[in-house]
Amino acid sequence: MSVMDIDSKEYQLRCQLRGHEDDARGICICGNAGIATSSRDRTVRFWTLDEPQKRDYTMSKILLGHTSFVGPLAWIPPNEEFPEGGIISGGMDTLVLVWNLATGEKVQMLKGHKLQVTGIALDCSDIVSVSVDCTLRRWRGGQEVEAWEGHKAAIQAIVKLPSGELVTGSSDMTLKLWKGKSCTHTFLGHTDTVRGVAVMPNLGILSASHDGSIRLWALSGELLLEMVGHTSIVYSVDAHVSGLIVSSSEDCSAKIWKDGVCVQSIEHPGCVWDAKFLENGDIVTACSDGIVRIWTLNHDKIADAVELDSFASQLSQYKISRKRVGGLKLEDLPGLDALKTPGSSDGQTKVVREGDNGVAYSWNMREQKWDKIGEVVDGPDDNMKRPVLDGIQYDYVFDVDIGDGEPVRKLPYNRTENPYDVADKWLLRENLPLSYRQQVVEFILQNTGQKDFTPDPMFRDPYTGSSAYIPGAPSRMPDVSKPSYKHIPKKGMLVFDVAQFDGILKKIYEFNNTMLSDQEKQHLSLSEGDMSRLSIIVKILKDTSHYHSSTFSDVDVALMLKLLNTWPVAMLFPVVDVMRMIVLHPDGAGKLLQHVKDENDIFIELIKKATANTPLPANLLTSLRVVTNLFKSSCYNEWLLIHRAEILDAFSSCCSSSNKNVQISYATLLLNYAVLLIEKKDEEGQSQVLSAALEMAEEGTVDSDSRFRAMVAIGSLMLEGLVRRVALDFDVVNIAKAAKASKDAKIAEVGADIELVAKQG
Hints:
Pfam families: PFU, PUL, WD40. It comes from Rehmannia glutinosa (Chinese foxglove). With 761 residues, this protein is α+β, with helices and mostly antiparallel strands. α14 runs antiparallel to α15 and α18 packs antiparallel against α19 (745-759).
């Protein structure tokens, strides 16, 4: 089938393989011999193509031997030992079983894993298995030949690359590339469990995650593509030589992707645990309703009308059973007959079921009849008035202030939506960088009280014995032994990565024109060539999706340095604002690094200029943000540690600045320093940051966001740093008490966190 064919058509149902008595879990394409599937019903079933019409498959073998449900499968192509091929299966019972397809008999039972087996790969004639017990094990001739720890949490999947290496995915949110027993690369980026891995022919590795995304990585570790569209956990991903990708999810769909875009979503009557391509481009899916389905682009193979109708009714039954109207199940609503009974008072409302919808009616006393009001859309159970944006009702509509003098943006959100999905779509719509994603998600979670959503790297749904994972149920195991903190310790660095480039360029042009008209400063102005270089620099910075491959030329860097060194201090801030964005670009950060290592250190010079005499708030703000953004690249860690004292001293007046943006930037600088100094176990540095943060927490004029960040720094330094005693001597307990009484929920929570750390002996 050519790629052209694939472009123009949609997948349609080809056949349904019925036989499993519980969730169908795993799929294994066994060359041209057939398809193997695994299930929660403890069986592996083998299906072969029906000879006469070659559209349907028939069950030809049931492999019985596992004592609990079965997950991953692998195919052994026919050889002397297995004339018709073999199947390897892994189960919840910790066993790996090897089956001879010719006889349907179990020929090997591999015992060694302590917990459920989650993935199997065939490596030449060896079997490599992975498990929730965090190990990889290699088996040869029925014996374990080696075992090694692979990840910090449950391993969920394994795949063998054409080049011979193995790749694993884990609940520790990473993928690892293995040559033998040595890990040659760790892929970082997912924000939750990596559940599925697959080979993307000639390109790299695909991963599916509980964070709702699918990622494509080069073997070098570079992220090539991120596909976002599922609204819940993505369980599996697979690729076809045509370039198509299929993924399956808890959101009851399998999605087809081409060039990173979702081109089709196939709805199912239940969670889709696995999806795989057949060689001809058809797709096999395993669903929690126990049915395995095959989907095709080939018109001659589409199922007959009876089968298509049967599937459509399964789907609509399932949707009806899940649909809720005004807090009630749709199937529990009365039918239209209920409108035969007259109402008891004027305006009394009644919701009845019409087809797949709930419709509201109001009793009209004067005319003695029920007037139709309209369809009911389910809202939160508390019947509060729901906010409306652009004519659509939402559970929440937030005002988001992204600072930089920008207008406040509206962010709509419904409780049923995946916050990651909402964040991505909103950032694209508002033309903001996707690097804001985590902050937007945290904002949504914090403001909708979804404390349980926190993607938890230790979260182990992996196939809990009960039914499919239910979105919205707490996914965290409460840890009773440890006190739980809401906001500390802070992990990771905060950066300022939104820029209004058009406004910045306009300001630079304006200042340039001022200089052109001033005889004495004319020689400092920019030429036409410089101006076009500047717009090229901005173009590179705007294109965040190519940060891994774009670079700056030496001319670009030289131009920026010239401006920093020669322009009058009062005109520096838009130039510094461009620098703030360049240091977030991997190549930009690297190229500037050589200019901090020599005698005239550009950033130290900049800080001196920006903070001298009576500093301009705009210079303070932009230079603070440049330094804060340097924390993003670990190559600046050493520089930040060496110059810590002078940097914090230079900006110390910002604590009492009347400019809210300066305050929040300074608080963020303190917070990033706290995270770095905790990691470096630098006690003297921690003490300096602690005292600056305490000063900020006590300052009466500090706005609440800045105060919050300062307090998170204090709590983190006390909990994970070396200065808990110092903080207690500084009377941190009273600061925490005052914070707990705050009307601002975040401040009250972090106050409680600090009080709790203070009490821990």
